[in-house]
Design brief:
alpha+beta, seven-stranded antiparallel beta sheet, two-stranded antiparallel ribbon, 17 helices, binds adenosine monophosphate, binds magnesium ion
Length: 487
């Protein structure tokens, strides 16, 4: 295990030079203090968890100190925001501090979000507030625990620095970890600014460092694009299966690695609602829950356009055609497992859709229903759960079909069924109201709630003694929280 000054850097992105990023020093926060740290994320850097409590930890991740080998850079990119192209975005408030190698030979980008103004800040102040930093921290670590590919979060550092949003808040920083911070929007930037040499350099960089196996293929760039399509299909299938709504699927927020990235006004569904819009600023519902699937493809098409200098349009189209069938296969596979099924039948798709429609019409809690379905035998579970449905006759018809399907699936004991289902059906998810409670306490200086919630969410499938309050439906106030982009 390492001390903080023992990290090993190798800043490969910084070496691409000034066409790709700009050297900027972090702007320190006043009175930096540890809000919460993730031991699991610290382990990725081989860091001794005890160092999180030392003053130098808050100084490093609060922008006061830097490692001698760090090379803080603001990256340039562009992207399609809500369907329209914005020619220049870039790290307006985050810095890539450098790339750290761990003992297993993996490298991790250290990205400090909320680190002050950069040449890409446009009208912004370069800051992130405590509220949104806690939300990003909790979401990253919660998604990871659910098995959903995501960037990770090492810690949140709070401060006394005033930051103005709709009201005065406090500045904070979140230290984000990912194998790369390259977005679809990086490729779009060099494509639309007509810089073919830099674009080729970027493509080589991504291919060599992140998709080396594609080098062996006859057309390495095409193989890489296909892999990106596949990873996105799988990631979005997991979002849909677990009720995660990203909220701002702009192409500048889409990772080239197919991981969940750039958390803003995200939400997990409480009641199942296919039309749910988690982003209060998304008036047209472009990024509503069910639209995430076609938008995933739209975003991949935007990336494909930017890759036309390297790959034929025909081949790009063919690769894009893989997205929907792959999405569907992953989604159905996960939903079968969530229903406790171990085999596949033609009609499973309609079995899933039928259940979701009933849940939608009755406002049934998505996570708790599926968890409780595994508590008992199919017969006992549906008998207990029918009370949650307004259309009881409709549910009874579905339940008969489900029981027959479970019977055809094969024999196992109730113990086996419960174990198998609970391993894929979380009891604890990051509900907006739980995050809000933790934020309210943290804003008044009490970090115990955010730490406890983080701890619970790292083991979402395991029933934890004394934590019943984290496995409840939201109270009424907690169902209608308005979350916007102003973070
Ligand atoms: P986001 O909605 O967080 O994905 O950000 C979109 C763009 O706005 C990115 O280029 C961000 O770096 C930039 N941005 C967001 N918030 C701020 C801020 N407070 N200060 C400067 N730039 C920001
Ligand atoms: Mg962003």
């Amino acid at each position: 295990m390492k001390a903080l000054d023992e990290l090993t850097f190798d800043n490969r992105f910084a070496r691409l030079g000034d066409a790709f990023s700009t050297h900027v020093l972090p702007e320190p926060l006043d009175e930096p203090r540890l809000v919460v740290a993730s031991k699991a994320a610290m382990a990725l850097l081989d860091l001794d968890p005890a160092v999180a409590e030392t003053p130098v930890f808050a100084e490093l991740f609060g922008g006061h100190k830097l490692w001698a080998e760090a090379e803080p850079r603001a990256m340039v990119y562009s992207g399609h925001q809500f369907g329209g192209y914005t020619p220049q975005l870039g790290d307006g408030r985050g810095l890539l501090l450098g790339e750290v190698y761990n003992e297993a030979g993996e490298h991790w980008d250290l990205h400090l979000k909320g680190a002050g103004m950069t040449p890409y800040s446009r009208m912004g102040d370069g800051r992130a507030v405590l509220r949104s930093s806690i939300r990003e921290f909790l979401a990253s670590e919660a998604l990871h625990a659910l098995g959903i590919p995501t960037s990770r979060a090492l810690c949140v550092i709070g401060s006394s620095t005033p930051v103005w949003r709709e009201k005065q808040e406090r500045g904070a920083m979140v230290l984000r970890l990912a194998h790369s911070h390259i977005r679809f929007g990086h490729f779009e930037y060099f494509y639309y600014t007509k810089k073919p040499e830099q674009q080729a350099e970027l493509a080589e960089h991504v291919l060599n460092l992140h998709y080396p196996e594609c080098r062996e293929q006859p057309e390495p760039y095409l193989a890489m694009f296909r892999e990106i399509v596949e990873r996105n299909a799988e990631m979005i299938a997991k979002w849909q299966a677990y009720g995660f709504c990203h909220g701002v699927m702009n192409t500048d927020n889409m990772s080239i690695l197919g991981i969940t990235f750039d958390f803003g006004p995200f939400a997990f569904l409480d009641d199942f609602d296919a039309h749910f819009i988690c982003n209060h600023s998304d008036h047209e519902g472009r990024y509503s829950f069910s639209n995430q699937v076609p938008i995933g493809q739209w975003n991949l098409s935007a990336l494909a356009q930017a890759l036309t200098p390297f790959i034929s349009v025909e081949a790009l189209k063919e690769a894009l055609g893989l997205y929907l069938p792959l999405y569907q296969a992953h989604y159905l596979d996960l939903m079968r497992r969530r229903l406790g099924l171990t085999t596949a039948e033609e009609d499973d798709q309609t079995l899933v859709e039928g259940l979701l429609k009933l849940m939608q019409n009755s406002g049934v809690d998505y996570t708790l229903f599926l968890r409780r379905l595994g508590d008992e035998s199919a017969t006992l579970a549906v008998a207990r759960l029918r009370d949650d449905f307004v259309d009881m006759a409709g549910f009874d018809a579905w339940a008969e079909r489900y029981k027959a399907r479970v019977a055809r699936d094969g024999d196992d004991t109730q113990e086996q069924r419960r174990e198998r289902m609970h391993a894929v059906n979380p009891l604890y998810i990051l509900r907006n109201y739980l995050a809000q409670n933790a934020i309210t306490a943290a804003e008044s200086g009490d970090y115990s709630e955010v730490r406890r919630l983080h701890d619970v969410l790292t083991r979402p499938f395991e029933e934890q003694a004394g934590m019943e309050q984290y496995a409840q439906r939201p109270p009424n106030w907690g169902k209608h929280l308005e979350i916007s982009c102003s973070s």
